[in-house]
Automatic annotation (TrEMBL):
It comes from freshwater metagenome. Keywords: Coiled coil. This is Unannotated protein. The lineage of its organism: unclassified sequences, metagenomes, ecological metagenomes. The keyword Coiled coil applies. Residues 454-468 have a biased composition (Low complexity). Residues 386-499 are annotated as: Disordered.
Amino acid sequence: MRITGWHVDGYGRFHDRGWDGLPAGLTVFHGPNEAGKSTLLSFLRSMLFGLRDGRTSDPAIPALAGGRHGGVLRVADELGAAWAIERHGRDLRVLDGDGTPHDALALGRLLGGVNRDVFEAVFAFGLTELEALGGLDEDALRDQLFAASLTGGGSSAHEALATLGRRVDGLYRPRGDSPLKTLDERLKALRAERRTALAGQEAYATLRAREADAADTIASLETRLRDGRLEQDRLARLARVWTLVDPLDRRRAALAGLAAGPTVRPSDVTDARDADRAAAAAREQLDEVAARRRTTADALAELQVDPGLLSAAEPLRALDREATAQRERLLARSGLRTAAGRLADEARGAVADLGPGWDVDEVLALDASLPARREAGRRATAVAAADDAVTGAETRAEEADRRVRGARGEVDRREQAVGGLTDRRARGVQGEVDRREQAVSGLTVGRARDPRTPAGQPGQPWQPGDAASSPDDLRGGAGNLPTGDDRSPAAADLPTPEGLDHASAALSEVRGALQDLLVRRGALRSEVAVLEELRGRAARPVRSTVPKDDRTRVSVLLLVAVLSVLAGIAIAALGQPLGGGALVLVGLVVGWADRTGAGDDADAVADREAAAAEAAAQEEEHADRVRRQEGRVATEREAVAALERTVREASPVAGLDPEEAAAATSTALVERRAGELDRLRDRRRAADVAERDLAAAQEDARVAAREADEAREAVAAARAAAREAGDAWRTWSTGPGLPDALRAEDAVALLAALERAQDAVRAAADASSAVEEADRALTTWSRRAATTLADAGRAPADALDVSAATGSTAPGDLAHDHDHDALLLAVADAHAAAQAAVAAQAQRTALLERDAEDADEADRLAARVATHATRRDEVLAAAGAADLPALEQACADTDRRAALEVAVREGDEVVRAEAGGGRDGDALIAEARTGAVTVWAARREELEAALPALDEERTRAIAARTDATRDRQALEASVDLPRIDGEIEAVRADAARLLTELRTTVRARELISGTLDAFVRDRQPTVLRDASAWFARITDGRYTDVRQTLQERRGKQTPVLQVVPAHGVALDPATLSRGTREQLYLALRLALVGRTARDATPLPLVMDDVLVNFSPDRSGAVAEVVAEVARTHQVLFFTCHPATRDLLVGAGGGDVRVEELTRG
């Protein structure tokens, strides 16, 4: 069965909303929180199985948007036939594709006998169900996973067995005391006593016979009643077997309709497909290689190489590398010749410039080296420096005298400026002192002060003469102003910088405390107002009656809600967001409750009672709110008092009236005092600057006088040094042979001229040598070039006299520069041709090598094409298929045939287990295949009508036995037997009751144990095998096996679920992480889905956000697994995470349908 769509008439937030055309694969319902995903999941469960307790609507998910609670679910059975399941409250309608109504049995057939518990345990689950599995013990987990598809799944089979075992032990224990053994011993004693009392009674046997006849009649009637009830049970079992036989026969018919053919495995299809692809790929590569070989052959045909050029390539390369130098020498040779003549003329002119009597030999003989010039320059510089030193010393002496005069004038001006500032400061300070003395009059000293501040005696009024209230104290803010000789006239009447800083720090403390105080006072007023309002509301009685007229109704709850919201907003605005938010939330809840119940006039009486109870609760809550508000008021008052103390304590240090500051309604007083402190600080800085300037001017005057004295001494020293430098020059100039009358500054110029003349003579000689060297180099290269060109078969032009170039050894073989140019061009052309030949030869070699490689590659590819084609043909021939599509169809037929064979075999086992063994079971199955549902129902109705009549007849027989018993008891009364018989009957009744309970309990335990063992034995291996495969897929092979083993626990063998990692020992699921454990339980459920689908009709798999606790790699693996399951089962996946939606869409490709849900 699969779901094709549904229509919601009224359920939660949905009204008149439908979805159609849902595919048989994967459908993802995505939307944010409160978009209705859980509502749709609950709707699907309700449509399939109804409301769990039979209510007409589900109060947890009411029809909020209107409409009748319920809707229509459209499904398709295994054969594709359309069905509609319609539910509204208790009303159920099951319609086929033609609109024909059917009974609830048709819905059971569609569900394949799966009930609600099995559906919710196996097919529809979310994160809550996965997490719930982690809290179960081993037995409970085993029941939940492997016994889920038993009728009544969800209850613990092991728990039932344990309960029944405890009850059996409590009824009868072979050894030790038990109720049945005690009753048996008591009955034996009473019978012996009764036999003794009845001895000699003649009529007793007759009465006992009447009782026995009545008892036989009762037994016969009870047998008929039991047979009738057994027949009822048989008919019910027959109906259940019919629901299993019907789909089994359809599978068997489908299996018979599949033609027998060869068995084709998926691996055969994969091998054939891979071989075909590999052959095609190899064939494409072979074509590419053949194309490359043709291109290579064409390129080889176009390449031609000259052997002569190839052999001369290296000499030509060497000549070409030297060609640039040859051109440069050729270009430079004429210049060198011209330069040699010019330098010879310059040398003659330089010698002539020295004056008459100088020749080349004398010029070269005189030492005009750099050391000689440096020594002459040093001595000349020393003479000039001595003269400059004398001039500089005299200039500095004059400048020092001017600075002394200027410094003395500056000192006079600074003294006048300081004197004027002192007069102005004195007048300003006196006014400030007078104002401060008036401000502090009447204040008392009773609070803590800064320990650095001198203070008057505690409790005494401040006086202007006190240390703490003097004018200096007020100006400095701390009373620590310097006094005596250490204060200059300008600063004697101003506070110290330390005192100003101390007063500013105290003023900042007052400012912060005062700002906090103003805020706290406002909060206190608001809290007091709220408290008064709450107290006023507490004094007013709350009326809880329900108005008769809707137009004049004044809801008490609404009034309370409005007041709570207003009070909450006020409290939040005053700095208490938590308390205010709580009141607002209470108001909204009360208002909602009032509005939702305002229109229900039919329940007026109940509303009055509820309103009265709510009013009492509100009064108690209001009293609590008043107490909490009183606590907040007390807290605010304490904070205000603490801030007032802080303001009063810091105000005197800052120069403020403590009481005035504490009573201030703003910070204006503090800001005025701050302005006054800033002005005092500016005056203090101005006085300090003036004093520093005066001291600096006095120091400058002293320095200037000292520098003037030093300058006069420097003049005398400079003059003595100048005389010593002149004497030293005259002594040194006689040594190098310089003219005696030559001055120091002229000697340097003469030596420079001599150096230039020497350089000119030497340069002329070097130029002549360079011309000769250039001629030799040109001739050598020309000879090599001509020889190489001849060897390469590249003779130069006719205009070039090569024979002369190669046969003569005298310079100037090529007399003209144009001959050299022609030779250079010939060498360049030959070198280019040789390089082209080398490149062509290298290219030819590379082409030949590549062609050989391509030939080898072509042989390998041809062999590969043949191998893969042969493999593909072998697989096709073995399967009897003409091509790949035919092979794939044969594989699909094989899988379908195998699945149907397994389903038929397992279905036969399930039917046999339900019908029972032997001929009775065969007869029951044969009768079930008749499908005579109407006949069975009629028989059940007959039994339901006949059994009450038999029960009445049994009642009459019991009455007859009662009469006989009464007569017997009258006879027995004569021998005083009532007590004994009464005790015997009581003991018999108790024993019969306990024996019946014991037999029923033992039989029930045997049935449950046998059924559970058979079920787990038959189905557990398949489930665990499939779960192992899924779990390995999800964990990427980290865990390879899921199994159940027996372990000794509390003296008995207990089955335990374990997981086996790829490399390691088996682990208990409790040791896994939360995400991995949930992945294990998901794999087990997917395995159960496959098993249950094979036993009964495949049902849709519904999952609700089961990936949220998985890591990204595991989430991707689970998405691929879900997409794979969706290829054979319909999957409806609900999620609020876009990433989960994208993973599922990516895993399913284009076969995934996405339904977007919104809050609107």
